[in-house]
Design a protein that fits this description.
It contains five helices and no strands. By secondary structure, the chain is mainly alpha-helical. The chain has a domain at about 1-60. α1 (about 1-25) packs parallel to α3 (about 50-60). It is elongated and about 100 Å long.
C-alpha cells in the first residue's frame, strides 16, 4: 500500500509541475476562464484537481494551422509556363558536319589497319 501512495504522490507532483509550466508558457490568447496567475494559484492549491482543471478547462484550443494546398506540377500553371524563352534554332551546321567527317575519318583509319575488319 505504501508503494501505491508513493507512486500516487509522484504522479500528482509530475502532473502539478507539468500544469504549472504549461500554464506559464501558454500563449495569452489560449488562456480561458481565469487570468494566468489565477490558474497557477489553482494548480498550486488544489493538488490533483487544479492541474486537471487547467488542462481540461483553462487551456483553450490551439490555433488552427494554415491549410497548405498541395498540387502536383501538372496542375500548377506556373510550372507549366516556360520560365524563359526557347533558344532560337542554330543555323550553323558546319560543326556537326565537321564532327561527322572526323568520325568517318576515324572509321576509315580503323579499317586500314590490315586486320580485315576484325577487332
Amino acid at each position: 500500500m505504501a508503494r501505491v501512495l508513493v507512486f500516487a504522490a509522484i504522479a500528482a507532483t509530475v502532473l502539478g509541475v507539468f500544469a504549472i509550466v504549461d500554464c506559464a508558457l501558454t500563449e495569452r490568447r489560449r488562456v480561458r476562464g481565469l487570468p494566468r496567475w489565477a490558474w497557477i494559484l489553482v494548480a498550486l492549491l488544489l493538488p490533483i484537481a487544479g492541474p486537471l482543471l487547467w488542462l481540461l478547462v483553462g487551456r483553450g484550443p490551439s490555433s488552427p494551422r494554415p491549410t497548405i494546398r498541395v498540387m502536383g506540377p501538372e496542375d500548377d500553371p506556373s510550372f507549366l509556363r516556360p520560365s524563359r524563352p526557347a533558344l532560337p534554332p542554330v543555323a550553323d551546321t558546319t560543326r556537326w558536319e565537321d564532327l561527322e567527317q572526323e568520325l568517318a575519318n576515324l572509321d576509315s583509319d580503323a579499317d586500314d589497319d590490315g586486320d580485315g575488319g576484325r577487332r
